[in-house]
Amino acid sequence: MVKYVTRRLLVTIPMIVLISIILFTLLQLAPGDPLAGKLDQHTDANYIAKLKEDFGLDKPPVEQFFFWAKNFLQGNFGVSFDKKVLVQDLLSERIGKTAFLGVVALIFTYIIAIPLGILSANKPYSKLDYTLTSASFIGFSMPSFFAGLLLIYLFGFQLGWFPYSGSETEASGYEGLEYIMDRLHHVILPAMTLAIINIAQYNRYVRASVLDAKAQDYTRTARSKGLSESKVLRKHVLRNALIPLVTLFGIDLGLLLSGAIITETIFGFPGVGQLYIQSITTRDYPVVMAITMMTSMAVLIGNLIADILYAFVDPRIKYD
Amino acid sequence: MKKRKIGILSLAVVMGLSVFATACGSKSSGDGAKKKSITATMNSTFDGKFNPALYDSVYDAYILDQTFASLWKQDEKLETSIPDLAESWKESEKKDGVSIKLRKDAKWSDGKPLTVDDVIFTWKFIANKEYSGSRFEYVESIKGAKEYREGKAQDIEGIKKVDDYNLEVTFEKSDARDLSTKVFSTPMPKHIFENKPVKTLENDPAVKKAENIVTSGPFTIKEIKAGEFVVLEKNKNFYGAAEGKPKLDQIVWKVLQEDVAIGALKEGKVDMVSRIKPGSFETIKGFKDVELVEDTDLGYQYLGFRTDHPKLTDKRVRRAIAYAINREQMVTGLLKGHGTLLSTPVSPKSWAYSKDLDAEYSYDPGKAKALLAEAGYKDTNGDGFVEDPSGKPYVLSLEFPKGNQVREQSAKLIREDLEKAGIKIDLKQPKDFAALAEVVQQKADKTMEMWLMGWTTDVDPNPKNIYGSTAESNYYRWKSPESDKSIGVSMYDQKAFTKEGRKELIKDWTKIFQQDSPVVLLYSQNIIDAYNKRITGVQYDYRGALGHPSFVDWDVK
Amino acid sequence: MSQALLQIENLKTVFQNTKSAITVVDDISFSMNKGETLALVGESGCGKSMTSLSIMGLLPGTGKIAQGKIMFEGNDLTKKSVEDISKIRGNKIAMIFQEPMTSLNPVLKIGDQMTEGLILHHKLSKKEAEARAIERLNLVGFARAADIMNEYPHQLSGGMRQRVMIAMAMSTDPQLLIADEPTTALDVTIQAQVLELMRDVKAEFETSILLITHDLGVVAEMADRVVVMYAGKVVEEASVFDVFEKSSHPYTEGLLKSVPNLEADQTRLYSIRGNVPTPEEFPIGCRFAPRCDKAMDHCFDHAPDLYRIGDRHQVRCFLYHPEKGTFSHE
Q: For chain A, is the Cβ count within 10 Å smaller at the N or the C terminus?
């Protein structure tokens, strides 16, 4: 196992290098000069030239890349072209928030989608199943800005159960547990928005997977032993049906980091996504690079974790 | 039986979460009951560089406006006339100097007195060659500032401290422009910044961290959450505190997407929404307890020509295009009346504005055709579009950036209008702003012909920065000795030193500008703000309600 | 005469579609005595497996028993509640399946799967159950039974898995073991071992075996009595001796002829022409008539009953009609 993980990690390195090269090239090729956006009657040529020099933009691209790579390896993500502040300062607070949002969204996904999927599979083609199926299709096709606005309207404005924006109460003075509760209270609506599409997807997936497992010979064997249907479901069907979900986990990890862009914007939830979209419009390459690299690494590591988990939950998989 | 349990269990978890959440929700609103607090919104996130010399974003400016006092402020005619930190000031007859007297009761929020030293420190900070911001222009006029920046002088020659509260400034030369363009007016606290490195100040806590930012205005910054909110708290050391200003205890600035902000305004969850899109006007109009205010913004949209492009060197063609565009329709149709037609680059709100120049370029397709014909552009092959004087097909390309919906729609209207007048238009796909700006700014570019963009104008009506031949922002490459001469006169001639005289001179230049037509001025979108009627004392002008200096007098019922 | 252990009376099993009901088991009756091995024989699709699943109450999908009785130890299983059936299933009646490769749960250890029936039905502790499981694994020929308990199905070969299935089925000392094609998926050499094992088990525990197979070789080796099914109906019921010596139904004859016979110098293996009809297209008359070499006109539009032709020997064929000769045979 250790050998396998080491090997996988080693394979990850050239992938990350490759991703960074492709990304850098794409950003170089993309039209738009990061400093051109500072179109202002007061920005004189000297000022722009000075910025170019400060940011190293006057150097040839290859040199720029190595400069960036060297700093990146040392944990220095550079200076934002747009805001002129250190990228790590911009990211540090936001990463935590996005991760929190992502984790809560994942938890929502699991605790809602899995039971619903099982319910559907228990009585396939029943009214309940059709209702859940239709709900899934609606959830799946609903754009997240719409879902977000709907939740804000219902639970933020009409019912007033949850805050309609932000990640914490302004000037609250909360500390300790109260502060954590406040954060949790704020994260629920955006996390739900983020989770909706996931729930719709997972629900379908679990339904199909459970139905499949229920039709398997080993399930019939379990039933032939006289086990109750619920025991058959819990012990024999679910163990098999839920294993493939582990694979999805790896992909989700990356998606949640980057997929929160719209949700964060609507909820004024200050995570990485909000910064990302802003940085793309302003061609703030150091920030775009840093976030994309982090997302890529999250996906790679997420997949690695998923593969390792797979070996734990499925005895048929062995790594050596 | 048990399978039902799973369903019930999951439902219970969700319900439980919501109930618990509701419980702590009701608690959170209990806090600021006694405080007079309002919540205002901004559409997009602030950068969080809360320093008057270093900020770049307009959202940072919202906060700075309310937290930092200036020497002086502009009145509703855009003239610098309202005292703030400066109790009084006197410009010399020849407009080559100013003596400034600070009020003695001005203090920093940490209680230290605000003196002439802070003002001088700020100017020298901006003139320092290590300074990374973009505001050198605002001290450049002071005598000796350039030498100081280039390291040729230890001090800025034109600044003379008389005592702690009196200061004399000498300019490089007589200069008729408004004080606000010649003197950077928002001081930074010297005692905080004097020992800090100039070059990397953006990353300093004194610029970014609420507890380290020292301000001079009505409010201080209490809490900053990047990308989310800024909480401003009444500054007890503000010089107006003695008179009970500001009346509010707290202003919460929230980053909120416009749709959500409008919903929250309706629900009474936020009190002020700024810079609303014209399309939302009618929706908000129906809200109970919400007041809508609008006024002409200082910015304007324009269609730019590359006047050095062979297709556009003939000013009759450019004039024809100006006549052919139905700008009225943009204001009434696209902006639904929430905008103003523009014919001069001088804001209609300014003291320097001459209303009688407005008549030029009212929609006149006939005149457009006549001008085209006069220049030799005629439809020789009967396809409905003119050919150039040599008989070759004549097509003009038009570029525009993404992002501003009204502007995107106006591009299509412009094409329709111009094609009606016989000019074939090649309307390009919209580009990202940064991508289009890059090409617009390129000095060597030969591909651009026409484009749509906007300018935010200065308080001072001087056109040099945008229309002077050598101006960095002269993307139209309009080289007119006549115009340059006229601009020079309006800045430095004796006649310019009186308001009336300068107004005349600017009018003279505007006529040259109109005749040469390096750009077609399209419209100025109104600034629309909405606020809950529980806020009293709100005034507004071209700055909107939120940007208006009256915020110190706002109160809540 | 002692009471039969299992008595099937007029069992009819249908699959309910949205529009129509498809009858897969049509009015069959047979009985089994204690200690007896009854072979249920027929080609695939005859309804053998559906009969066994009806007994177990494990009909898939929309399948259900439409009429008839399944008397087990004097109680009608069709009348019992789900809970009561569960107490019998896996306890007094156990089943082994055709597909050893897929019939064990791939993610659970053998030990876990072996013991759960014991813990459930015999209320044994985990330890006791494990001891019993190891004992049964020994019995089916695992020398290192304790190790096997900790292994996963994918670590075992097909034959080993079927032995595990048998050990598992036998762990609760069932009165009735239903074996649905237990050797079909196995290699020939392994087949012999498994059959041997089943015989041993039967001898040891006096278990009755309902053996479902299409393989008459297996029947000859294992069965006391034979029930031949065709298209959902019983077409012949006889002792194993009668079937091989005096098989009477043309279908049974056909089945016998298609067994490779080393003594007869066959050049080509015989096969019954045509295929078993699907339940939707069962013929109106004798269901075998379209494939029958001896079919008469009468056979095509009249359904024959079971006619008794000897001691516990019944045949569903007009050839054995008490008033034979009434029908013209052309």
A: C
Of B31, B48, B465, the CB nearest to A42: B465
Whose CA is closest to B52, among B183, B227, B224, B248?
B183
The average pLDDT across B53-65 equals: 92
Reported as a single tens digit per residue, the pLDDT across B359-393 is 889 999 999 999 999 999 999 888 999 999 998 99
Tokens of B253: 């600035």
Smallest Cα–Cα separation from A274: which of B144, B227, B82?
Answer: B227
Q: Does A218 contact C106 at a Cβ distance shorter than 8 Å? A: yes
Q: How far off is chain C from A124, nearest CA to CA, in Å?
A: 10
State the Cα angle at C56 between C53 and C60, rounded to 5°. 45
Tokens of B211: 């507890």
Q: pLDDT tens digits for C130-143?
A: 999 998 898 888 88
Say whether A315 and C168 touch across the interface (CB within 8 A): no
* Nearest by CB: A224 against C95, C99, C154: C95
Chain C: closest CA distance from residue A216 (Å) = 8
Tens digit of each residue's pLDDT (9 = 90 or more) over C222-277: 899 999 999 889 999 999 998 888 878 989 888 888 877 666 565 666 788 888 88
Residue C257 dihedral angles phi and psi, to the nearest 5°: -65, -25
Whether the predicted model's global pTM rises above the 0.90 cut: no
Give the N- to C-terminal CA distance of chain C in Å, as an integer.
44
Counted residue by residue, chain C has a size of 330
Is residue B114 within 8 Å of residue B216, measured between CB atoms?
A: yes
Segment B85-105, tens digit of pLDDT: 999 999 999 999 999 999 999
The 3-state DSSP class for residue A118 equals: helix
Count chain A–chain B contacts defined by CB atoms under 8 A: 214
C159 to chain A, closest Cα gap in Å:
16
Please choose, from the candidates A88, A86, A81, the residue with its C-alpha nearest in 3D space to the C-alpha of residue A285.
Answer: A81
Q: What is the DSSP string of B306-367?
A: -TTSTTT--HHHHHHHHHHS-HHHIIIIISTT-EEE-SSSS-TTSTT--GGGGGTT-S-HHH
State the amino acid at position B147 in one-letter form: E
Is the Cβ pair A169, B28 closer than 8 Å? yes
Query: What separation in angstroms does the CA of B229 have from each of A269, B212, B225, C130, C250?
Result: 10, 17, 5, 63, 90
How far apart, in whole angstroms, are the C-alpha atoms of residue A170 and residue B31?
Answer: 11
End-to-end CA distance of chain B: 59
Identify the bridge partners of residue B202 per DSSP, sorted by sequence position.
none
* Interface size, chain A vs chain C, as Cβ–Cβ contacts under 8 Å: 79
Contact (CB<8Å) A42/B267: no
Distance, in Å, from the CA atom of B371 to the CA atom of A146, rounded to the nearest integer, reads 51
Cross-chain Cβ contact B227/A271 below 8 Å: yes
Q: Are B303 and B451 in contact (CB under 8 A)?
A: yes
Are there at least 3 beta-carbon pairs closer than 8 Å between A and C? yes
Residue of C105, C172, C173 to mutate when probing chain A, most A C-beta within 10 A: C105
Which pLDDT score is estimated for C325? 56
Q: Which residues does residue B221 pair with via DSSP β-bridges, in sequence order?
A: B232
Touching status, chains C and B (3+ beta-carbon pairs under 8 Å): no
Interface test with B, best of A54, A84, A274 (most B CBs within 10 A): A84
Contacting residues of A for B464, CB less than 8 Å apart: none
Chains contacting B (3 or more CB pairs within 8 Å): A
Closest-CA distance, A64 to chain B, in angstroms, reads 20
Report the C-alpha gap between B337 and B179 in whole angstroms: 34
CA gap C139, C201 in Å, rounded: 8
Q: Do B134 and A163 touch (CB under 8 A)?
A: no
> Which three-class secondary structure state does DSSP give residue C209?
strand
